[in-house]
Design goal:
There is one protein chain. With 102 residues, the protein is mainly alpha-helical. It contains 3 helices and 2 strands, in the order E-E-H-H-H. Strand 1 and strand 2 form a beta hairpin. The termini are far apart.
C-alpha cells in the first residue's frame, strides 16, 4: 500500500493537490460581552423637504404631519418658489397663517 498524505477539510479527506483553498488564518472568536452597537452619524447632511420637488397632494400630506416650525418653513419655501394656490390655501389650514404675511 502506498503512503499517500491526505488532508481533511470539514471532515472530508482530500489529496493535497485536490484540497479546496483554506483561509490562512481564522479571525479570533469574540470574548466577553458583545459590544454595544456603534452610534453613527447620518451619511450626509440633513435633507429638508422641498415643496417644489413634490406634487400638491404630497406637500399637503407632509404639512398634515409637520410641526408649526416645519409648516412655516415649507409654506415660505412654497411662497418663494412655485406658489401653488392649492398648497398655500390648504397649507394655511395645516398650521399658522399659511405664510400669507406681506
Amino acid at each position: 500500500m502506498s503512503d499517500i498524505t491526505m488532508i481533511v477539510v470539514d471532515g472530508i479527506r482530500y489529496r493535497p493537490e485536490d484540497a479546496p483553498a483554506r483561509p490562512t488564518e481564522e479571525p479570533p472568536a469574540p470574548t466577553g460581552p458583545p459590544a454595544p452597537p456603534a452610534v453613527t452619524e447620518p451619511a450626509g447632511p440633513l435633507v429638508l423637504f422641498d415643496p417644489a420637488e413634490h406634487t400638491v397632494p404630497e406637500v399637503l400630506e407632509h404639512l398634515a404631519d409637520a410641526d408649526e416650525d416645519e409648516t412655516e418653513r415649507v409654506l415660505a419655501a412654497e411662497l418663494a418658489g412655485p406658489a401653488r394656490k392649492g398648497v398655500l390655501s390648504q397649507g394655511s389650514h395645516a398650521g399658522g397663517d399659511g405664510g400669507a404675511t406681506p
